[in-house]
């Protein structure tokens, strides 16, 4: 089954064969290689590459070619047929490296990944300063105004599904918000959805390496991501502007207030996806709503309306969609004027009772999920979703 997914990954790594077919032969020599990359640096780069924002087909081909050259040496496999566009483009890129020594390819690969990592990190750095600050990236818009830092998921055409790049950007945004001069922090979505959860193609978009490694790097990312919510020191408020799915629902238990439009729904279809709960929901939901209701959501995937979620304690208050934004932001502006230290201390005293437990729950949930992601049930469900939407 792992092989089936790996094959699917290869297909999804290059989505537009016509675009890559005209890609010129390349002989890549990255300069500035004062330090030689050892095998460990190379393995780290292979892990890091999976967490990068999609660098585009051209860069993927460069990375692919260098990886192959570094691990297998010069290309000596038969050239794929002319209609096998994707594999031919990959073969051309690899073959173009000629007899470049393995060590040089390894070094070039490490340098290239470093340059990609630093450019993608700097694009999502949060800068201190002006009152209305616009930060983040295309898919995550971070603004700070009137004592409120707003982190907005901005991928409305994909229902704000969270990519690996976005997980990293949210971590950076939360870390910056915890230190900036705002009083409260808000997470919301742009468009008709709050968030459709984990982007299911996070599991498929890889170039090389083993599926187990990919899953391991996603597990580390998920654990760091949820840890940030557990440790966030200021009041954190979710403005749930529309339906919420998966991790965007489970995380709500770690917020200090959840305001929802009456259009919002709350859905955790983990069993349907061959997965298991995360975001500390396996611990918080039963405590919050009682085991019976929690199990209906987390085991059977029952979707709740906003009213039901409010009755179960997951949502603080529901507003009519027509007045949702006005009413909620008026409320938030008032909260942002409350004494910040008092709010932080009150949050701290509540959270500190449970912090250690929450970190342990997070670690356990992620370790279970790591195994689930390699299961037939999960792989089939993800492939089923993606294949229905495949554009190749
Ligand atoms: C670090 C790893 C953490 C892992 C843990 C997290 C667990 C989870 O979050 S599990 C939950 C995962 N989410 C889902 O299963 C939802 C999948 N999506 C859907 O079921 C439907 O898309 C949805 C009900 C949200 C909306 O349905 P429609 O209104 O009919 O819209 P479309 O299906 O046409 O969607 C529009 C567009 O968005 C893309 N999309 C939506 N959700 C996702 C997603 N989660 N991942 C990737 N892509 C998503 C969908 O494919 C459509 O794209 P195009 O086909 O390109 O238009």
TrEMBL record:
Pathway: Lipid metabolism; fatty acid beta-oxidation. GO terms for molecular function: delta(3)-delta(2)-enoyl-CoA isomerase activity; fatty-acyl-CoA binding. The keyword Nucleotide-binding does not apply. Keywords: Acetylation, Isomerase, Mitochondrion, Peroxisome, Phosphoprotein, Transit peptide. Residues 119-139 are annotated as: Disordered. Its EC number is 5.3.3.8. Residues 38-122 form the ACB domain. GO terms for cellular component: mitochondrion; peroxisomal matrix. It catalyses: (3Z)-octenoyl-CoA = (2E)-octenoyl-CoA; a (3E)-enoyl-CoA = a 4-saturated (2E)-enoyl-CoA; (3E)-nonenoyl-CoA = (2E)-nonenoyl-CoA; (3E)-tetradecenoyl-CoA = (2E)-tetradecenoyl-CoA. Its main location: mitochondrion. It comes from the Eukaryota. The keyword Translocase does not apply. It is found in: Mitochondrion; Peroxisome matrix. PROSITE patterns: ACB_1, ACB_2. InterPro entries: Acyl-CoA-binding_prot_CS, Acyl-CoA-binding_protein, Acyl-CoA-binding_sf, ClpP/crotonase-like_dom_sf, ECH/Chromodomain_protein, Enoyl-CoA_hydra/iso, Enoyl-CoA_hydra_C, FERM/acyl-CoA-bd_prot_sf. In the C-terminal section; belongs to the enoyl-CoA hydratase/isomerase family. Able to isomerize both 3-cis and 3-trans double bonds into the 2-trans form in a range of enoyl-CoA species. Has a preference for 3-trans substrates. This is Enoyl-CoA delta isomerase 2. It comes from Pteropus alecto (Black flying fox).
């Amino acid at each position: 089954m792992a092989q089936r997914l790996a094959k699917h990954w290869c297909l999804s790594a290059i989505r537009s064969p016509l675009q890559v077919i005209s890609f010129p032969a390349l002989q890549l020599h990255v300069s500035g290689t004062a330090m030689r990359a050892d095998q460990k640096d190379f393995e780290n780069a292979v892990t890091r590459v999976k967490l990068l924002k999609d660098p585009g087909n051209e860069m993927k081909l460069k990375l692919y070619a260098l990886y192959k050259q570094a691990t297998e040496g010069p290309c000596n496999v038969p050239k794929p047929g002319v209609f096998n566009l994707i594999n031919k483009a990959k073969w051309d890129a690899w073959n173009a490296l000629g007899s470049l020594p393995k060590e040089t390819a390894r070094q070039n690969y490490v340098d290239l990944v470093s340059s990609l990592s630093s450019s993608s990190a700097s694009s999502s750095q949060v800068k201190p300063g002006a009152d209305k600050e616009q930060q983040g990236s295309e898919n995550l818009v971070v603004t700070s105004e009137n004592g409120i830092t707003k982190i907005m998921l901005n991928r409305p055409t994909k229902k704000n599904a969270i990519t690996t790049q976005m997980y990293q950007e949210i971590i950076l945004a939360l870390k910056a918000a915890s230190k900036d001069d705002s009083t409260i922090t808000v997470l919301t979505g742009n468009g008709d959805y709050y968030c459709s959860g984990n982007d299911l193609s996070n599991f498929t978009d890889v170039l090389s390496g083993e599926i187990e490694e990919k899953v391991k790097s996603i597990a580390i990312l998920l654990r760091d991501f949820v840890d940030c919510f557990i440790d966030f020191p200021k009041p954190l408020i979710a403005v749930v502007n529309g339906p919420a799915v998966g991790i965007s629902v489970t995380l709500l238990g770690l917020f200090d207030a959840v305001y929802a439009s009456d259009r919002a729904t709350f859905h955790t279809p983990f069993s349907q996806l061959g997965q298991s709960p995360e975001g500390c929901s396996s611990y918080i939901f039963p405590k919050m709503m009682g085991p019976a209701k929690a199990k209906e959501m987390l085991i059977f995937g029952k979707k709740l309306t906003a009213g039901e979620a409010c009755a179960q304690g997951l949502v603080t208050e529901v507003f009519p969609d027509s007045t949702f934004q006005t009413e909620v932001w008026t409320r938030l502006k008032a909260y942002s004027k409350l004494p910040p230290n008092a709010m932080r201390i009150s949050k701290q005293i509540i959270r500190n009772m449970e912090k250690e437990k929450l970190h342990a729950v997070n670690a356990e949930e992620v370790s279970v999920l790591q195994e689930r992601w390699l299961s037939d049930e999960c792989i089939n469900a993800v492939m089923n979703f993606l294949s229905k939407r495949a554009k190749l």
